[in-house]
Amino acid sequence: MSTQKPNNDALWGGRFSEATDAFVQEFTASVQFDQRMAGEDIRGSRAHARMLGVQGVLTADEVNQIDEGLKQIEAEIQAGEFEWSIAREDVHMNIEARLTDLIGDVGKKLHTGRSRNDQVATDIRLWLRSQIDAIKGQIQRLQSGILTLADEHADLIMPGFTHLQTAQPVTFGHHLLAWYEMLDRDYQRFDDAQSRMNRCPLGAAALAGTTFPIDRHFTARELGFDAPTRNSLDSVSDRDFAMEFLSAASITSIHLTRMSEELIIWASAQFNFIDLPDRFCTGSSIMPQKKNPDVPELVRGKSGRVVGHLMSLLMLMKSQPLAYNKDNQEDKEPLFDTVDTLMGCLMSFADMVPAIVPNADAMREATLKGFATATDLADYLVRKGLPFRDAHDVVGAAVGAGVANGRDLAEFSLAELQAFDARIEADVFDVLTLEGSVNARDHFGGTAPNQVRRQVAEARARLG
Ligand code: ARG
């Protein structure tokens, strides 16, 4: 960052009689972070200049000079040779001032018929739109890894939990498909947010529009927007698209914390359901036996930043009168950090999930312990003619006896079971086995291995 004298380069200095306080200059600048949108800013400026050319506001030669100048600036930025200046406040004025350095007075015509207010609103939309593409790509990569693992373990039985208490046997593949579904909705939310933000604010100028004969449909098309925004005041003040993005990011982050928490529990010595490959874990500097699930723990922790950024932006926008206010400059850092944080979380999950190694024996043993097939016995009695509520009672008594004697239902003899209800016959053992239990839930959305394989195939076809 160069240390120019205050306001030497400010593009708005005409009505000012003294220089901006040096601290205020630094305090109000945004170039330290908004230079990240330089590519989008240049793209927007090139489209704006072309439009001014087509409309006869600029000559073909002027448009050409501006275009060449902007291309050179882009190359300078990419090469790391561009000198960003705090005195030039933000990415927009840094680029515009450099353009004038390069091509002289023609550079000063670029800002005809626009304002930084519509310019920044355009830049953020362009930037966020492409970042969401990257996020969606990572979500799909994670989903694809989940499907591979689910398919491989469509038959693997584990306890399904409610209240973190053993509830009913499920298949590991089925559990993984629940994660897939959460991510599927996340993907749709991003997709939806993206389509709503894909309107071009350019041409709204400061707030009221411009006196020049602009063609807003032209710039919208050039920049790949579906249409121009409809109201100039709204165009420069709307940040819903950013709030919406942060909401979608927060929900995804929270989903990732749920998956993280399960991985952390499953990887504990007490559960021992899975092994996380060493490359996703670290050790302890004091306890030689430790292998810590750092990646899921960090992903769980990072959700705090993402949800915090959503809160920041909501508070930033609260009660702001129309149209643009300088407050809005504070929208960028939360957005940037959210994108970086979420991308990191998704990328590490997409790498890690397919590498999870389940421990079939431990899962089976745990499922056998918690009376997981009690509901199957109740359903069996219903099929033998008992109303469900009475069947629930009978099985409750059997479970009570099992707890007292340290035995699972399948470990009772037929005679012992018949003591609870005479309708019980030898075929009861078919439903008391874990395989019998999961295979019986063979309907759309159920846990049966058949259904898991079917869902995997359908999801694969959707993912493409
Ligand atoms: N740096 C500003 C921002 O991020 C650009 C828009 C400034 N507009 C203004 N009228 N001061 O919001």
From TrEMBL:
> Which catalysed reactions does the entry list for this protein?
2-(N(omega)-L-arginino)succinate = fumarate + L-arginine
Instruction: State the Gene Ontology terms under molecular function.
Output: argininosuccinate lyase activity
Where found, per UniProt?
Cytoplasm
Q: Which residues form the Argininosuccinate lyase C-terminal domain?
A: 371-439
Which EC numbers characterise this protein's activity in its record? 4.3.2.1
Q: Part of which pathway? A: Amino-acid biosynthesis; L-arginine biosynthesis; L-arginine from L-ornithine and carbamoyl phosphate: step 3/3
User: Taxonomically, which superkingdom?
Assistant: Bacteria
Tell me if RNA-binding is a UniProt keyword of this record: no
Q: Where is the Fumarate lyase N-terminal domain?
A: 14-308
Q: Which Gene3D superfamilies match?
A: Fumarase/aspartase (C-terminal domain), Fumarase/aspartase (Central domain), Fumarase/aspartase (N-terminal domain)
Entries under InterPro entries matching the protein? Arg_succ_lyase_C, Argininosuccinate_lyase, Fumarase/histidase_N, Fumarate_lyase_CS, Fumarate_lyase_fam, Fumarate_lyase_N, L-Aspartase-like
Location (main, coarse): cytoplasm
Identify its protein family. Answer: Belongs to the lyase 1 family. Argininosuccinate lyase subfamily.
Supply the name of the protein.
Answer: Argininosuccinate lyase
